[in-house]
UniProtKB/TrEMBL annotation:
This is UNC-45/Cro1/She4 central domain-containing protein. One of its GO terms (molecular function) is myosin binding. It comes from Eremothecium cymbalariae (strain CBS 270.75 / DBVPG 7215 / KCTC 17166 / NRRL Y-17582) (Yeast). PANTHER family: FI21225P1. Residues 141-284 form the UNC-45/Cro1/She4 central domain.
């Protein structure tokens, strides 16, 4: 059977058993007929089935592939995911892949890497096998020249991350050597090498910060950057982008503020550069160094570009505003600009908006909706930055701008609640990046801090969104705390019977108990340090509300059967805060509709001392809780 016959057969009855000889003959023909153009999909199917259907044809393919990897790569064209997986599966050992790696090296050096298929193949090979570093060192040497392409760029970053993970010390040393070589070439006016430096550092900084900072701060590179980049119109934007992303490192941020600030501020007069320059100035957070510019002017530059048709400019504008929104006077200015607020909301609810822009806008909206009595870790950090920036000038502009609570209230009402931001994003929560989900949860938390907004937040799906978010076990404790506190507020201020169409009311209980500290050392220490008495008090109120529903029996069983939950209840009974004592007794009172669970727990534990303390606090608080009194009388010693 020839190639055409086999291709037709493969498209027909899947149950048809084809002879191994047909596969081998077709593979031989494909390699040898260099003068005929074949349909890439047909070729791919023959190769994949040759690998998967018969061990003999698989072995034959591997033998031929090792001999002529160039021919097979030509035949397969852009390399689909199916083809890549089949090829990688066909190898028996790392040695089998060396001829392919040599061909990949040749193609990358010859700039024949125009699609992402070849690099996907490289990435899968690196995942599967451990190579000698000398066999793959060409990746560190050549890939910096391929970062111009937006299609290839993400894969280059993944490959570098894999190299760093498997060959960390050797790879880092080699990467520094590569930067040294590129710096020498850039100094000799090789523009391609300068572009490779700027692109590689800009892209790698977020994932390989330490090694990038070492390269960036080297005397040789700094000499080249200062002499060439900031005075070359074709490279200056890339240079500013590098300075912007390098601010992720505190030591580098300070260095940029000291060494580059005057040049960057001067470039604000250039319409082509002012947006990029403004972002660098903001990210250095050294406003006391500004000579002829006010913070408000930087904010206006970003505001003017929020509606830009250029996606990159829009991204920069949003990022800049997100940073500046940590300053109260800027927050006041943005909230008073209805056009900008409306544009931000329209962008964040638009499913076509890029994730990086959504993240920036959600961060911005979260800052704009934060009430002044809320002191977040982010704001504490920025206060430290401001203190550093203001050492030489304590009367700097960032200190001004008192916020009025009614302005924040009106902003949430007009732009978050009325424009259905929570409803829109709740419907596609799973599609958002984790960092976007974090900021979205903070936005819900801000809105639910005021009772006026809670019912509308619930209608827009806030409860389901919060439970979905918590179910995915968010890593950052602060945002987990935002989510639980928001859930708490909803449970306290809403009839629980109306909340749970998709979840059981009991699904909230483990999260509520996270707000009640224990004494057994099982609580997350970071979370424990962030808890307040109000958290515990409101968690008990929420549990009390749940105990008034049809789930009270199940809730009672859950609490008494979980040693950690019961221990926390006992701690609350013995707490020094009257509010906590009163709340936990109210909770137990509501659970007395199903008294056997609670009574049995007291009997099993035989904690007569606790019963005496309960009696004491009951009298002390003058609580009229008949069910609990009855329980105490029933089980107290005579």
């Amino acid at each position: 059977m020839d190639i055409d016959g086999l291709s037709k057969a493969l498209k027909g009855d899947l149950r048809l058993e084809l002879k191994v000889e047909d596969y081998i003959a077709s593979l031989n023909a494909l390699v040898n007929e260099t003068d005929k153009v074949r349909n890439a999909e047909d070729v791919e199917e023959i190769i994949i089935r040759s690998i998967k259907d018969h061990s003999t044809s698989r072995a034959h393919f591997l033998m031929m592939f090792k001999q002529k990897p160039d021919r097979f790569l030509d035949l397969l064209g852009d390399l689909s995911s199916r083809a890549i997986s089949a090829i990688v599966d066909s190898f028996k050992s790392v040695d089998d892949t060396i001829p392919l790696m040599l061909e990949i090296k040749r193609r990358i050096r010859a700039k024949k890497c125009r699609s992402d298929g070849l690099l996907k193949l490289v990435y899968q090979l690196l995942e599967r096998y451990v190579y000698k570093f000398e066999d793959i060192v060409f990746l560190a040497e050549e890939l910096p020249f391929h970062l111009e392409s937006t299609d290839i760029r993400p894969l280059v970053l993944l490959i570098f991350a894999q190299l760093d993970n498997k060959y960390k010390r050797t790879f880092n040393e080699k990467l520094l050597d590569v930067f040294d070589t590129l710096t020498i070439e850039a100094d000799a006016d090789h523009t391609e090498s300068m572009n490779a430096i700027l692109n590689t550092l800009s892209e790698l900084y977020p994932v390989l910060t330490n090694i990038c900072s070492e390269a960036f701060l080297s005397e040789e590179l700094q000499t080249v950057l200062k002499r060439k980049i900031l005075r070359n119109d074709s490279l200056i934007k890339k240079g500013l982008q590098l300075l912007s992303v390098a601010c992720i490192d505190e030591s580098v941020r300070k260095y940029i503020a000291e060494q580059y600030f005057p040049i960057i501020e001067a470039s604000l007069s250039n319409n082509e550069l002012k947006l990029h320059s403004a972002l660098v100035l903001v990210k250095t957070w050294s406003f006391s160094k500004l000579k002829n510019t006010k913070v408000k002017q930087l904010g206006n530059i970003f505001i003017q570009n929020v509606e830009s048709n250029d996606e990159r400019e829009q991204e920069i504008a949003v990022e800049g505003l997100a940073y500046l929104s940590l300053i109260s006077s800027v927050r006041n200015g943005i909230r008073s600009n209805g056009n900008v607020c409306l544009e931000l909301v329209q962008l964040v609810v638009d499913e076509k908006t890029e994730s990086c822009i959504i993240y920036g806008i959600l961060s911005l909206l979260a800052n704009l909706s934060t009430f002044s009595d809320e002191c977040t870790p982010e704001q504490s950090s920025i206060n430290s930055l401001k203190a550093y920036a203001e050492l030489k000038n304590p009367v700097v502009e960032t200190q001004t701008g008192k916020e009025e609570e009614e302005d924040i209230f009106a902003f949430i009402d007009d732009y978050i609640v009325d424009l259905q931001v929570i409803g829109s994003l709740s419907n596609r929560l799973k599609d958002l990046m984790p960092s976007c989900r974090d900021q979205f949860v903070k936005l819900i938390y801000n809105a639910t801090r005021k009772r006026h907004f809670i019912s509308e937040c619930v209608k827009q799906g806030a409860t389901k969104a919060l439970l979905g978010y918590l179910g995915n076990m968010p890593i950052q404790i602060q945002f987990r705390l935002y989510a639980i506190r928001a859930l708490n507020s909803i449970l306290i201020n809403t009839n629980p019977k109306l909340l749970f169409n998709h979840y059981s009311p009991l699904s909230t209980v483990p999260y509520l108990f996270e707000l009640i500290p224990g004494r057994d050392g099982n609580d997350n220490e970071e979370l424990l340090n962030a808890l307040t008495t109000r958290d515990s008090y409101e968690a008990l109120l929420a549990l009390t509300n749940l105990a008034a529903t049809d789930s009270a029996d199940s809730l009672s069983k859950l609490i008494v059967s979980d040693p950690q939950c019961w221990s926390k209840i006992m701690n609350c009974i013995l707490d020094e805060t009257v509010q906590i004592q009163r709340s936990v007794l109210e909770l137990l009172s509501n659970l007395m509709a199903y008294p056997l669970h609670i009574a049995a727990k007291f009997l099993i534990l035989a904690i007569l001392q606790v019963l005496r303390i309960l009696t004491y606090w009951l009298n002390y608080c003058a609580l009229e809780i008949s069910n609990l009194k009855e329980l105490l009388l029933r089980f107290s010693p005579t």
